[in-house]
Every structure is written in C-alpha cells, then in structure tokens.
Predict the structure.
Amino acid sequence: MNFNEYPDREFLYLQLANRIASELGDFLRREGRATLCVPGGTTPGPVFDTLSGVDLDWANVTVFLNDERWVPEDHARSNTRLLKRRLLTGRAAAATYIPIHSDNGTPEEALEHLAEGLEPHLPISVLLLGMGVDMHTASLFPGADRLEEGLSDKAPLLLPMRAEGAGEPRITLTARPLKQAISTHLLITGPDKREALHRAEKLTPMEAPIRAFLADTTVHWAE
Ligand SMILES: O=C1O[C@H](COP(=O)(O)O)[C@@H](O)[C@H](O)[C@H]1O
C-alpha cells in the first residue's frame, strides 16, 4: 500500500478530489467513458463537494456506491442520499447514476435486478473506499453473516450483508469487483483509523476486511 499523509483534512480533500478527477479524465480521453465507485458514511462528503464542480465530461461517467444501508432513501443514514446531495449535483449531475438500493422489499429481493444494472459498467475505473475503525470497508464487516462469501474470488457482484456493528441490513459490492478496479484509493481521517489500518496489515481479511484491498491501494490520511 502507498500511504499519503496530508498536513490537514482540507488539503487532503482537495488533493484527493483533484487526483480522482485527473484519473477520470485520463480514462475519458483513452476510452471515452469511465466508472467511479464511491463510499458513503461521514468522511467523503467534502471530497464529493469539490469533485461535483470539476469540469469533466461527466455525461460519460457512471457513478455508483460501494455499498448501501437498507434504509429509505430520505433517511439520514442513506448513502444514496449523501451521493445525490453532495456528488451528483452541479457539473457532476450529468453523470449516469446506477442504484444499488431500492425503497421496496429486502436486499435479497432486489439483489438480482440491481446486479444486472451494474454489470455493464464494470470494471470500475476509479474506486474510492472508506473504512470504519472496526476495519470494515464497503459493507464487508468483521463477523458479518456472509463475509466469507463476500471475500471469495467467486463471489457474485453484490451481496446482502448483516453484521452486529452495521446497524441495519446492508447491500455491498463484494471483494471481487472491488479488487478488479483499475485504480483504488482509500480515504481515512483521524488517529483511530490510522491505527486501525496499521492493525489491519497484520490481520487476515476475515478479521479485518480492508486487508483484502491494501496491496494495490493508495491511502490518503490526515489527522
Ligand atoms: O457504513 C459505512 O461505513 C464506511 C466508513 O464510514 P465513515 O462514516 O467512518 O466514513 C463507509 O465507507 C461505507 O460506505 C458506509 O456504508
């Protein structure tokens, strides 16, 4: 893993947004299209704020989430809500958004339909991951009911996931499509997450799911 430490969070958010925009621009110039996959949670909002205003050919960018909490879209914990309010706005409103959530039914019921929507947009060009202090990433939580399946190289694209630390049922991209991303960045802030990341390096992916991604990831951290 390549670890980048920034002097403060503001600088980190700006630099990371510019780095992602530049990589998307490279994909757009080379291939005419690009796919961006992003986390939810409390950390990435300021990166989205900058990214959404960048002058890119957003009409040829596809955007989707790493994972979603199975709550209604207007719920304060909805990752989709965050994405729509902070990223898919301004210039980035022209991007194509692929949902991994439905306000109806269970994750199990929606799974097949949602996976069909994602399939044509793989592999991911630029993947941004987040991480919790429990070392989960996406909704691959330590101790989750389907973690082993979610980390398997033969996993389907999406899986429902339930875990004690997760709060609500989840749906998540599995490790297979996430690991196939062409460029991967991990955004973390604060001393607890830095310490958790260093702990994860000595653990297995079943103990610390973020471990499955560290080999090819550029980490961006500020206190
Ligand atoms: O539950 C989630 O947590 C992680 C980390 O979130 P944060 O609030 O600590 O930044 C996030 O990456 C994931 O997408 C989200 O569903």
About this structure: The two ends are 19 Å apart (CA to CA). The pocket of LXAUTJHC is lined by residues 39-43, 66-67, 69, 79, 130-132, 139 (CB under 6 Å). The chain has a mean pLDDT of 98. Helices lie at 9-31, 45-51, 79-87, 107-118, 147-151, 175-179, 191-200.
